[in-house]
Amino acid sequence: MIRLRHETPREWVALVERELVAFLQDHAANEQRVSRAALTLAIQHPERETLVRELVDVSIEELEHFRQVLGLLEARGAGLGRDHPDPYMRTLMKQIATPDREEWLLRRLVLFAIVERRGYERFALLGEHLADAQLAAHYRELARSEARHQALYLRLARQYFDGARVEPLLDRYLDLEAEAMRAQPLAPALH
Nearest Cα to 21, choosing from 66, 67, 64, 79? Predict the structure, then answer.
């Protein structure tokens, strides 16, 4: 598993518990975004059959996560919130942008692996520390899914691109991601 270079402070879990509905609304928005991002990659690269097959499955799984989080919101008498831009992702996507189609694919695969690893870290924290046992179990299951997705994005990057390109990019993007996380105020949000 990828080793992140900035750890989420433990007080984040307490903040999520205090503002659970806001967190769940943000989580739902993120699930639909990652579903769409996986599907977009598949559609943009139809010639890469393994990528298409794998990322369509990821997109469907992420959409199912969206449905699950919507259920958690409804059980609490809440609904979806407004889908606000994610400054963490906006910062990262801006830093990796390139007009070269193949390079853009490589960069997104590597970045998405890191973002999924961040999701794993945060969901695992919730799974370990939430007082609500049922919700904690839900987040432990989601953490396992994030770990699988992290491995998949990295495997696809290594399958389609030379390791001499993937590994230095991974190293550089881990630094970028750590900087982006440190720049974010602690909030009841996934990122």
Answer: 79
Instruction: Please provide the DSSP assignment of 25-82 as one string.
Output: HHHHHHHHHHHHHHHHHHHH-TT-HHHHHHHHHHHHHHHHHHHHHHHHHHHTT-----
Q: Are 39 and 53 in contact (CB under 8 A)?
A: no
Burial letters 159-169, b for 16+ CB under 10 A, else e: ebbeeeebeeb
In this prediction, residue 146 has a pLDDT band, given cuts at 50, 70 and 90, of very high
Residues 121-143: pLDDT tens digits? 999 999 999 999 999 999 999 99
Q: How far is CA 71 from CA 67, 86, 135, 185, in A?
A: 6, 22, 12, 28
Q: Domains of the chain by range and CATH?
A: 11-183 (1.20.1260.10)
Judge if pTM exceeds 0.85: yes
Among left, alpha and beta (phi > 0; psi -120 to 50; other), residue 48 is: beta
What span, in angstroms and rounded, lies between the C-alpha atoms of 121 and 126?
Answer: 9
Residue 83: which pLDDT band, with cuts at 50, 70 and 90?
confident
Torsion sign across C-alpha atoms 60, 113, 88, 136 = positive
Q: Could you identify the residue written with the tokens 């290594």?
A: 158
Neighbouring CB atoms inside 10 A of 122's CB total 23
What's the token pair of residue 62? Answer: 């992420």
